[in-house]
Amino acid sequence: MSREEKVTELLKPVVESMGFAWVGVEYHHNSVNSILRIYVDRPEGGIDMDGVVAVTEAVNPILDVEDPINAPYTLEVSSPGLDRPLFTFADFVRFTGQTVKLNLHTPLGKRRRFEGMIAAADEAAQRITLQIPNGKEMETVEVDFAHVDKARLVPVF
Fold first, then answer.
1. Which of 7, 40, 103, 145 could pair with 126 as two cysteines, CB 3.0-4.6 Å apart?
2. How far apart are CA 96 and CA 82, in angstroms?
């Protein structure tokens, strides 16, 4: 089980019992420091600073006791923001019609990075269809969810 999966298993029920939505977790490690970032929201959207503080105060003691990271780190509890990360296939279903930046574990053709609109999300096949601008035309690209490394919404201003 990955660190992210351990943290999710440990903290998601706590966050949801407080009335917040669990969005996801990221763990970043480099030679200088490590960051455990937990994304939470309100089910209807728009968590405020009081909510972030409440979640931080609730999860910090649990992390101290359970120690799922087993190394020094900085805890950050955050809203998903406008460039919301997409962690689950359900996120792709929810945000169909939105523009996303996508990084893959392995190249599709010769590319690992894509930016385009989520045109469809086939739950049975766990496949995402993107419409990607290619000059004046749109190119359709199909990606298996299992190959997605990172994905974020692209805010439209």
1. 145
2. 15
Classify domain 85-153 at the CATH topology level: SH3 type barrels. (2.30.30)
Reading the chain (157 residues) residue by residue, the pLDDT tens digits are 889 999 999 999 999 999 999 999 999 988 888 999 999 999 887 899 999 999 999 999 999 999 998 889 999 999 999 999 999 999 999 999 999 999 999 999 899 999 999 999 999 999 999 999 988 999 999 999 999 999 999 998 8
Closest of 54, 65, 60, 58 to residue 75, by C-alpha: 60
